[in-house]
Amino acid sequence: MATFPVINMEKLQGEERGATMELIKDACENWGFFELLNHCIPAELMDEVERLTKAHYKKCMEERFKKSDLASKVLNGEAAETDVKDMDWESTFFLRHLPVSNMAEVPDLSDEYRATMKEFVAKLEKQAEELLDLLCENLGLEKGYLKKAFCGTKGPTFGTKVSNYPPCPKPDLVKGLRAHTDAGGIILLFQDDKVSGLQLLKDGEWVDVPPLRHSIVVNIGDQLEVITNGRYKSVMHRVVAQTDGNRMSLASFYNPGSDAVIYPAPELLEKEAALEESQVYPKFVFEDYMKLYAGQKFEAKEPRFEAMKAVNLGPIATA
Ligand SMILES: [Fe+2]
């Protein structure tokens, strides 16, 4: 099997640019995932984010998690399959950055953590937008097309799910996070470099996303699948709980604005439609998709696309 795609961003500057763009294209088409090295986020900043995230978990989250209904049952060996079928072995909180930050209102964060996260996510936002333009280039779309497609009236939505996956005595019984595709646009993940667990589904098999120090894992969400008319796919992934070690994961979602209208890029539709009629994706308002996703996150994406077709916002104008 091909090895997991790792992209050295430095090579975009030199004579290996063409080959690197090809690697990105192949990853988007065939994996839905890739990992970035030498990206624009300084290693020291990532180390600070990691230190502060782990300290925050120990101080404010760990006891609460252990006392939760799910954890106490599993830890005491009392959990049955039916108790945990809708559960994930994770401790999380959410930070919103765009269109309006909620960082000041999220409880229990130190000033240092807030300031460090602010610096970190500003760099991630820039990295996400740079990636969108690299995707545009590979797709033959004009520069800025994807960013504009995400804009709506208030600009994109950007937020970070901060997760910890504590050691679990029963990884066969309960998943860290059950299998799903991500609903949004492009996702940038800073994952623990020692405790693994993230897997993606490729050709019917679960493949590990290898922990790599100071890397950023990127994956494609459902909206990019729609806009690219299925050239790029959002791919099922999950987190397997580990018996040893606490896994840290900061997943930042660069998503369309709530009122953005999402539909296949006409340029891609024209070329693709001639090949296969059934590949046409729906046109919808992003927040309507998110309402549907809220109840169907752990199900296949195709019925969600079908349901959105039923909304029918009218034809997609082709040039
Ligand atoms: Fe996800």
| Distance between the ends | 40 Å
Number of strands: 13
Order of helices and strands: EHEHHHEHHEEEEEEHEEEHEHH
Q: What kind of sheet is the major sheet?
A: 7 strands, mixed
Work out the helicity level.
25-40%
Q: Structural class, please?
A: alpha+beta
SS strand fraction: 15-25%
- What ligands are attached or bound here? fe (ii) ion
Residue runs with pLDDT of under 50 for 5 or more positions: none
* Helical run tally: 10
Rg (CA only): 20 Å
Inertia-based shape: globular
Kindly report the spatial arrangement of strands forming the biggest sheet.
Answer: 1-2-9-6-11-4-3
Mean pLDDT: 93
Give a written overview of the molecule.
The chain is an alpha+beta fold and 319 residues long. The protein has ten helices and 13 strands. It has helices at 17-30, 43-67, 69-75, 81-84, 111-139, 145-149, 222-227, 266-273, 286-296, 302-311, and strands at residues 6-8, 33-37, 91-98, 157-165, 177-180, 186-191, 198-202, 205-208, 216-220, 237-239, 247-255, 261-262, 284-285. A seven-stranded mixed beta sheet has the order 1-2-9-6-11-4-3. Strand 1, helix 1 (17-30) and strand 2 form a beta-alpha-beta unit. Helix 1 (17-30) packs across helix 5 (111-139) and helix 2 (43-67) crosses helix 5 (111-139). The protein starts with 5 loop residues before the first strand and ends in an 8-residue tail after the last helix. Bound molecules: fe (ii) ion. Fe (ii) ion is lined by residues 180, 182, 237. Fe (ii) ion (FE2) is lined by residues 180, 182, 237.
